[in-house]
Specification:
74% of the residues lie in helices and 0% in strands. The chain has 2 helices and no strands. The protein has a domain of 30 residues. It is mostly helical. The longest helix has 26 residues.
Length: 68
């Protein structure tokens, strides 16, 4: 399998998972009857997105040829 296609597939899955997780939170009627703390849910999603972005940046930096 082509390496570029594989990396795009992994990135697509990594971006789709937070969206799928966020859909049930959006379907609720409001914050008053919400069983979870919406701030913690959003903080968790933002932390996950940051982790994926940071990992992607580090992998790209490692693969890039070093210029002197």
């Amino acid at each position: 399998m082509n390496k570029a296609i594989l990396s795009k597939a992994i990135l697509s899955v990594a971006l789709a998972i937070p969206l799928i997780v966020a859909l049930p939170a959006r379907a609720q009627s409001g914050c008053e009857d919400s069983p979870e703390n919406p701030t913690l849910v959003l903080a968790g999603l933002a932390g996950g997105v940051f982790a994926v972005s940071s990992l992607r940046t580090r992998l790209r930096a490692r693969r890039a040829p070093k210029q002197k």
